[in-house]
Every structure is written in structure tokens, then in C-alpha cells.
Amino acid sequence: MALSELLAVLAPPSHPRETGGAPWPEVERRLSTALPTDYKRFIETYGTGRIADFLVVLNPFTANRHIDLIDHALHDPEGMSLLKDEHPGHYRFDRFPVAGGILPFAITDNGDTFYWKTSPSPDRWPVLVYESRGPDHDLFDGPMTTVLAALLSGAVRSRIFPSGFPGPAPSFVPA
For the whole model, what pTM was predicted? Predict the structure, then answer.
């Protein structure tokens, strides 16, 4: 299971916040798509918080609209649709809910955004990391928690992130 890889490098909080209980069918109905199993397990295990004092996984159960998965999915606060319209040669991916479109699931302090490249099989969605206000991106093949574990352990690097990320001992701090 992909979550076990993340648990090996990032201890979950003893008292996670905004884990949502069990309303996943309602979230998926509102989004008109199923979500990856490892993402749901992540939210249930970690809840809302900051990873390595740098990134936040969007949560459909949070009271904070700035980190609400549903708000980001349905309203495009990072402006990806506008960037694609203005610079189609640099931004080749359509935005969810277009079939095969990208769906945001995490953001960084620098404004970078993690997206899933959607398909009919949510547990097989690859991860894209787009730089803030630019077309550079990294594509990672693997579930969200496997990609996070690889980034946090240093097994893979993203050219989008600062050289000091994730630091020597990344942690999760509930917010």
C-alpha cells in the first residue's frame, strides 16, 4: 500500500485535524469523480497540516477555503485555465473536469501546485508538480503518497522546489 511508504518517512500526528470521518461518497459526488484510495487514507491519517513546513495537501473537510480540495477543483484559484488559454504552447494539460484533465491536490508556500493527471482509474493517476506562474513541471509516475514519500526521503528531487527541500527531518504539523 502506498501510504505505508509515506508513513515510513513522515510520522502522522497523534491528533489529526479535519479527517472527515466517512463522507467520501459525498465529496466524490460533488467532484463528479472518484478519488485515489491513498489520498483518502492520507486525509484520514494526517488530516489538515503542513509537510516539511512547505507544502499542504488540500483537504475536502477543512474549514479553510484556501486549502479546500473541492474549492480548488471546481474554481481554479491557481489560474491554470487562464494560463492555458493565454499560453497553450506552454500549458498542454486541460483542467479537470475535462476528461484526462489535471486536478489539484496540494500547494506549496511558493505557489507551486501538485496535480493528478486524471483518468478512469484514480488509483493510477500520475502526479504533476507545476511551478508557480510558469510552465515548468515535473511528472511522477506513481500514487500521491509514493511520490510524497520519494520527495521527502530524497529518493527523487523536483526541479521546481528550493534546494533545501525537504530538509533533514521533514515533519507533519497539524493546522
Answer: 0.93
CB atoms under 10 Å from CB of 147, counted, come to: 26
Q: What is the pLDDT of residue 40?
A: 97
Extents of the domains making up the chain: 2-158
Q: Residue 87 half-sphere exposure, CB side, CA atoms within 13 Å?
A: 9
What class has domain 2-158?
A: alpha beta
Of residues 1 and 43, the one with the higher pLDDT is: 43
Percent helix / strand / coil, the chain, rounded to 5: 30, 20, 50
**What pLDDT shows up at residue 1?**
55
Cα dihedral 45, 131, 34, 7, rounded to 10, equals -20
Buried b vs exposed e over 39-48: b needs ≥16 C-beta within 10 Å? bbbbbbbbbb
